[in-house]
Amino acid sequence: MRHSTLVMLCLGSAMALSACQKAGETDVDRAIQSVNAIEDNDMSDVMLTVADPNEAVNYFKRTSAEHPDRIDLQRNLAKSLVRSKQNTEAAAAWGKVVAHSESTSEDKVDYADALIRAGNWEKAEAMLDSVPPTYETFDRYKLEAMIADGNKEWKKADSFYETAVGLTTRPSSTLNNWGYSKLTRGEYREAERLFGEAIQYDPKLFTAKNNLVLARGAQRNYQMPIVDMTQVERAQLLHTLALTAIKQGDVTMGRSLLQDAIDTHPQHFDAAVHSLNALDAAN
């Protein structure tokens, strides 16, 4: 009887020990999986931000092929292709993401962005039309504005630009795009205002400075705008203003501005010298 009881106790202890070991192994497995997930996320963040764009593409091609059902890896591959400026492949990759059962409205907007980069504006418009109107983000309205611009639907474009600007704390590039839209329509004073606002948000945005000069020059205002600029930027803007003046028939003013650009540039300004020589040869 004592022997039987001892055997039962030993068996019970062995089973308890076995259960403890299994529980311990499960906990360890879960911990390892958690660590691996964190490492995967960290690696993805690195690849999408500071890593070489082509290296990131190769990394996500490999990992998404190893885990073909993971939409997060498919998204990261599509994002890395956009970052590496492989626009056609990026559009195709985003198309696969959108076809996934777990895709979102944000994915559709990113797909539309990739389609625009690849030059497929019509398909991009159709993709945005499929996004519910309740999904309101800066990226969505920025793209809507660009498409309306391309269709010369000016009222819609202005409405979308205004909405997009209100949905971001960094509207400089959108204000610049809106200003350029106004510039192409011949609304020079409004374009000048928008370029000025873009520069206020981002004083280093040279594209907006150059467009501001174009808008002022189109109004035959050949005074340099009062904005922060380097000496090289000033020379380049004077060159832009000079060409605008010449195009409008104000040749004497254009010649003077070209000379100012050459004198202002801290080094040899080949483009301005070439323009001035061409102008002198024509007269």
From TrEMBL:
Range of residues in the leader sequence:
1-19
Which Gene3D superfamilies does the record cross-reference, listed alphabetically? Tetratricopeptide repeat domain (1.25.40.10)
Keyword list (alphabetical) reads: Signal, TPR repeat
Pfam families documented for this protein: TPR_16
Membrane-crossing residue ranges in chain numbering = none
> Start-end of the TPR repeats?
172-205
InterPro entries listed in its UniProt record? TPR-like_helical_dom_sf, TPR_rpt
Q: Which domain of life is it from?
A: Bacteria
> Would I find Chloroplast among this entry's keywords?
no
Q: Which PROSITE patterns match?
A: PROKAR_LIPOPROTEIN, TPR
Is Signal among this UniProt entry's keywords? yes
UniProt xrefs under SUPFAM superfamilies:
TPR-like (SSF48452)
What's the name of the protein? Flp pilus assembly protein TadD, contains TPR repeats
Q: Which organism is it from?
A: Tropicimonas sediminicola
